[in-house]
Write a structure and sequence with these properties.
mainly alpha, 2 domains, five-stranded mixed beta sheet, 20 helices
Length: 488
């Protein structure tokens, strides 16, 4: 009886710690929550949010997602309808749907809230998966690292659908594991349906999710060995989960102007396995940006830990899935640091189990030393990580916000605008108008294509020369707006 009370107290303490971590994790993600989308990688965020804004304005046409950019920057083809088949717009349905039904927050804030809440579920799923294999301490530490690594904080409060894919695939892995625990596999129970829906959703949001099913494949092998190939229920799961992705990919083929050029993502510049590839992925991104250098020690401990064969293979399935991902999508991962959002679960699992193994390696004064060492490593990981990530939250060009507001105030709602920002859609998004993000053609040609206004941020003396041809309707030190339909 006494033992049951002790166990009950431990479980209650575990739940309390987890709740505290989730609450604090939610709180830190509110940092600059109400900022306009003009921070790091805003070009990508504004494209995602533009789809949601068009849902709000013109209806939830999920089969024809549209952005504001009607230039040829996205695909290299003229895109007068602004089609954007970046991914199936599940994220946008959440963002726009919550904005329309609840309101209170702005559309952009709802986008951030969707990502934040999704990241909390990701932390919960990680805790549950790791606790089962490596114990509650490792589970809590994994959740801690996922919630408080500065890189993870920033990228789990952005208006992007990548973090939502992480939530879906982690949830799918958890429920798949629960489904396999049953003596008899059934396709008519909650765990199977949850796994199926979450897996199919992950694939629709990002096809890269296919790579991150490796832990599920291992779980099936662990349960049935090669006999898993004879389980018709697993084949039903595989086929049905992939069908929506196939249908979506077939559906988008008649809209090539809305499909981003993507061949370069795999091995643009033949960079795979070159010195630059290893430097940018392993030294700069994983070593510096994500781990703050010091976290690498915990990752190494996580790899070298003394685990049972089954637990080690489960851990290895996450690591290998991440290695396959960064290797296949080599140029994408080198070019953009937000591509590493998808490998954060693997890294934080290694950190969590590595930290837990350090705590369990000694007794007496050695254990005290280990606690001190771990505290120092964790603090330095977070401090140095913050040093490199802190500028991500900044708006480095506030003039585009002010200029965008001016365009929204001074021009008709249906006006088409040229907001030249070297192909970056952030400036155009602030205007709340459709238009062009670069001078893809001469101004007279763009006028023939429908351009009504030209807006420039931080104008120079040479920019005033446009005033010899087109009427200036507003001019400050921060912006200048030309009416392309009127002479001066």
């Amino acid at each position: 009886m006494q033992l049951s009370k002790v166990v009950s107290k431990i479980l209650k303490l575990e739940n309390l710690i987890l709740i505290v971590l989730l609450v604090l994790g939610f709180s830190v993600r509110l940092y600059r929550f109400n900022n306009p989308i003009a921070d790091w990688h805003s070009w990508k965020q504004t494209d995602v949010s533009a789809v949601s804004r068009n849902f709000v304005a013109t209806g939830f046409d999920v089969l024809h997602p549209r952005i504001d950019d009607i230039s040829n920057v996205l695909s290299g083809k003229d895109n007068p309808n602004g089609y954007s088949f970046l991914s199936f717009p599940i994220y946008n349905v959440f963002q726009a749907g919550l904005f329309k039904t609840i309101g209170v927050l702005t559309l952009e804030e709802w986008g951030r809230m969707v990502t934040i809440v999704g990241s909390l579920f990701s932390a919960l799923f990680l805790f549950l998966l790791v606790r089962k294999r490596f114990g509650r301490t490792a589970g809590l530490l994994t959740a801690f690292f996922f919630l408080f690594i500065p890189y993870s904080i920033y990228y789990s409060r952005v208006v992007l659908d990548d973090p939502l894919m992480v939530t879906f695939i982690l949830g799918a892995t958890y429920f798949f594991d629960k489904w396999l625990e049953k003596d008899k596999l059934s396709i008519l129970n909650f765990h199977f349906l949850a796994t199926l829906i979450l897996t199919a959703s992950a694939f629709l949001v990002k096809p890269y999710g296919l790579v991150f099913t490796l832990p599920m494949i291992y779980l099936a092998y662990e349960k049935f060995g090669f006999g898993a190939l004879k389980k018709w229920q697993l084949w039903i799961f595989l086929i049905v989960s992939v069908i929506p992705l196939i249908l979506w990919r077939v559906w988008m083929l008649p809209f090539p102007e809305g499909i981003p050029a993507n061949a370069w993502l795999f091995n643009g510049g033949n960079i795979r396995f070159k010195g630059a590839f290893f430097y940018w992925i392993f030294a700069d991104r994983i070593g510096r940006l994500i781990s703050g250098y010091w976290g690498i020690a915990l990752i190494i401990l996580g790899i070298l830990g003394n685990y049972t064969k089954k637990n080690f293979l489960f851990l290895l399935s996450f690591v290998v899935s991440s290695l396959i991902y960064v290797t296949v999508i080599a140029k994408g991962n080198v070019q953009h640091d937000y591509y590493q959002i998808l490998i954060i679960p693997s890294l934080t699992i290694l950190m969590g189990v590595g930290a837990a193994s350090l705590l369990g390696k000694a007794d007496g004064y050695r254990k005290f030393v280990n606690y001190i060492v771990l505290l120092v490593v964790v603090l330095f990981t977070i401090f140095f990580g913050w040093y490199y990530v802190r500028d991500y939250f900044n708006i480095n060009n506030p003039s585009i916000i002010i200029a965008g507001a001016a365009v929204d105030k001074l021009t008709p709602k249906n006006a088409k605008v040229i907001a030249n920002y070297e192909g970056d859609s952030t400036f155009l998004y602030q205007t709340k108008r459709k238009g062009w993000v670069s001078y893809e053609r001469s101004l007279p040609e763009l006028v023939k294509m429908g351009a009504d206004y030209l807006v420039l941020a931080n104008p120079t003396e040479s920019d005033l020369n446009f005033g010899k041809t087109y009427k200036i309707i507003a001019h400050t030190s921060q912006y200048i707006i030309f009416n392309l339909r009127q002479k001066p």
